């Protein structure tokens, strides 16, 4: 079946779609001996597709993993500053890449997969996949819940109103459950900053139908078939 080269490279576990675009721009992909271009399609069953002169490997088995990312780890596969990466905690024996991001100071549910279609479905704004966070903040708490729930402007666009539920509160801090659908860069932290609050702890506890549950910090597990189908939107 003919597909875009970016999707083929993602499906075969060679690179994410974005990374595949970079490989194409650099002229490192050939199809039937000719340099491939961005947007080109091919059939991996009948065309000779090569990366840096090497043919495609055997199609990788679909893998999807949930990690409890600790604080202090970056989400990139490698880091030029030498910081610890979340990918270094996932030793599953095949190439997988993170779905979305959690900033270095945040913790919680982070998916890794070699399924480019699933990653795209979870990250693309049009699918409006729910992401749920537990956020502990300090500051002026009297009207904090109302301030957090306001649909503020980020990156020149008004965000959809988040759902904010108070979980617990003491004299100096409060913990909220915040549900968003867009996932803009550092969205929760920027929402808290706009509300005049300081973030003490930020943990993603759910993404779509998948919950972090009792997975220990720094550990990972494979998704069950039922969990995987639910993320795909299948029954």
Report on this structure.
This protein has helices at 5-11, 17-25, 116-123, 144-148, 187-194, 225-232, and strands at residues 3-4, 29-31, 34-35, 41-42, 49-51, 54-55, 64-69, 97-99, 107-113, 131-139, 153-154, 157-158, 163-169, 173-180, 197-207, 210-211, 220-222. The chain has 235 residues and is α+β, with helices and mostly antiparallel strands. The strands form 4 sheets. Strands 7, 8, 9, 10, 13, 14, 15, 16 and 17 form a 9-stranded mixed β-sheet that branches. β2 and β3 (34-35) form a beta hairpin. The longest helix has 9 residues, at 17-25. The protein is elongated. The model has no long low-confidence stretch (mean pLDDT 90).
């Amino acid at each position: 079946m003919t597909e875009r080269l970016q999707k083929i490279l993602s499906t075969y576990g060679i690179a994410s779609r974005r990374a595949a675009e970079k490989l194409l721009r650099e002229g490192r992909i050939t199809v039937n001996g000719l340099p491939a271009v961005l947007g080109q399609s091919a059939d991996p069953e009948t065309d000779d597709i090569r990366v840096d002169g090497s043919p495609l490997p055997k199609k990788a088995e679909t893998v999807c993993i949930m990690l409890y990312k600790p604080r202090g780890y970056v989400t990139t596969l490698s880091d030029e500053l030498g910081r610890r990466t979340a990918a270094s905690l996932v030793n599953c024996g095949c190439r997988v890449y993170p779905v979305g991001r959690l900033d270095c100071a945040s913790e919680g549910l982070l998916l890794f997969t070699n399924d480019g279609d699933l990653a795209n479905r979870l990250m693309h704004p049009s699918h409006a996949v729910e992401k749920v966070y537990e956020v502990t903040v300090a500051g002026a708490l009297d009207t904090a819940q109302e301030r957090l729930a306001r649909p503020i402007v980020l990156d020149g666009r008004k965000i959809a109103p988040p759902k904010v539920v108070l979980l617990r509160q003491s004299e100096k801090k409060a913990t909220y459950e915040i549900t968003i659908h867009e996932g803009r860069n550092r969205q929760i932290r920027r929402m808290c900053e706009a509300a005049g609050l300081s973030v003490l702890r930020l943990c993603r506890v759910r993404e779509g139908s998948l919950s972090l549950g009792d997975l220990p910090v720094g550990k990972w597990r494979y998704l069950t078939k039922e969990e995987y189908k639910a993320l795909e939107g299948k029954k």
